[in-house]
Amino acid sequence: MRVSNKILLLAGAAVFAGGFTMSAAVAETTSLRIQTHYAPETVSGKLAAQYVDDVQTMSNGEIKIEMFYSSSVVKSVETFDAAATGILDCDMTGGAYQTGKNPAFQFVGDIMGGYDTPYQQLSWLYYGGGLEAAQQLYNKFDMELVGWWIYGQESLASSKPIRNADDFKDWKFRSPPGMETKIFEKLGAKPIVMDFTEIFTALETGIIDGADASGLANNVGLGLYDLVKHANFPGFHSMPSDHLACNKAKWDGMPEAHRRIMSTAMMALALRTALTFEKKNAEAAAQLRAKGVNLYAWSPEDLQKFRDAAQASWPEFATTPEAEALVASHMGYLRQLGLAK
C-alpha cells in the first residue's frame, strides 16, 4: 500500500509539473496590432498578409497579429505615434512620414537620389552599419526598428506627359512629406502633401495633375491608371524603405524567440518584396502599354538633373546630429559601392 501511495504521489507530481510546464508555454504568447497604409488588394498588401501568416505559423500560433490595412485606425502619418503610445503596437508604413519629428527619418525612409536597387539599400541596413545607426533614432521615440521591405524604384502617375525634367514645370502632384517636396520644387513642380489614402479622389477630381504613390504594380492596384494615362518606368525618383517598427516597451517585453521570428521573417519579406516587384512591375508595364498608358524612360541626362537636385537637398535636411550621422553613413557606404564620389 505504501509503495502504491508513493507511485500515486509521484504520478501526481509529474502531472502537476507537466501541467505547469504546459501553462508556462501557453503563457508565452504575443498579441500585436499592426497598421499598414497599403490596401489588402495591392501587391504590398498581399505581401504584408504573407508576413503575418509566416510569423503566426513559425511561432506555432504563439504570436497573434491583428492587421489593419488602408490606414483604417489612424492616418498613415499618425501610425508611428499610435504605436509609440500604445493605440497600436507596430507601424508598417515608413520612416519618411516622421520627418517632422526629426529630419533624420528622411534618411531611413527615402534618401532619394542614392541607391539604385533595393538590394543595395538593404545591404546598408544589414551590412553597412545602418541598423545600428537607425535604431538609435527610433529608440529616441520609444520605438524599435524591426526591419525594412523595399519594393524598388517608384513610378509616378500623371494626367500630363512626364517625359523629362522640363515636364515638371508647374506640375501639381501629391507628395509625401519631407525632402521630396524640396527636390521637386527645385525642378519647378508644385508638390502638395496629402495622405496616401486621399490620392485616388484627388486625381479623380483634378485637384492634382499627378501623384507619387508607389511602385508601378501598386499604382495599378490602386486604380490610378484608370484615371490618368501617363507614367514613368523604370522609376528613379524615390525608393522608400517601408518599415516594421514596434513600440519599444512591447518589443522588449516579448520573448527572445518571438523577436527573432519577427526579425527573420522581415528579412524574408524584404527579399520576397524585391523579387516580387521586379516581376510584377514588368508585367504591369506590359499591361499598361497594351491599354494605351504612356510610359516614359528618362534619358541619362535627365536622370542626372534629378540626382543633382536630390543631392543638393540632402544638406537642407541634415540639420540634426542624427540626420548628419545618417547622411555620413549613407555617403560612406555609397562610396564603397561605387555609387558616389
List key phrases describing it.
341 residues; alpha/beta; D-Maltodextrin-Binding Protein, domain 2; 2 domains; five-stranded mixed β-sheet; 11 strands
Word description of this protein:
By secondary structure, this protein is α/β, with parallel strands linked by helices. The chain folds into 2 domains: 165 residues, Bacterial extracellular solute-binding protein, family 7 (D-Maltodextrin-Binding Protein, domain 2), CATH 3.40.190; 125 residues, D-Maltodextrin-Binding Protein, domain 2 (3-Layer(aba) Sandwich). 50% of the residues lie in helices and 14% in strands. It is built from 13 helices and 11 strands. The chain has a 6-stranded mixed sheet with strand order 7-6-8-5-9-11, with helices on both faces. β6, α7 and β7 form a beta-alpha-beta unit. α2 runs antiparallel to α11, α5 crosses α6 and α7 crosses α12. The longest helix has 35 residues. It is globular. The N and C termini lie far apart (88 Å). The relative contact order is 0.17.
Strand element count: 11
CATH architecture of the largest domain: 3-Layer(aba) Sandwich
What's the level 1 CATH class of the largest domain? Alpha Beta
Domain module tally: 2
Strand order of the largest sheet: 7-6-8-5-9-11
Our measurement of the CA-to-CA distance between the termini, rounded to an integer number of angstroms, reads 88 Å
Low-confidence stretches: 7-11, 20-25
Number of DSSP helical runs: 13
Helix content: 40-55%
**CATH topology annotation of the largest domain:** D-Maltodextrin-Binding Protein, domain 2
Query: Which secondary-structure class do the elements indicate?
Result: alpha/beta
The radius of gyration is 23 Å
CATH superfamily of the largest domain: Bacterial extracellular solute-binding protein, family 7
Beta-strand content bin: 5-15%
What is the average per-residue confidence, as pLDDT, rounded to a whole number? 90
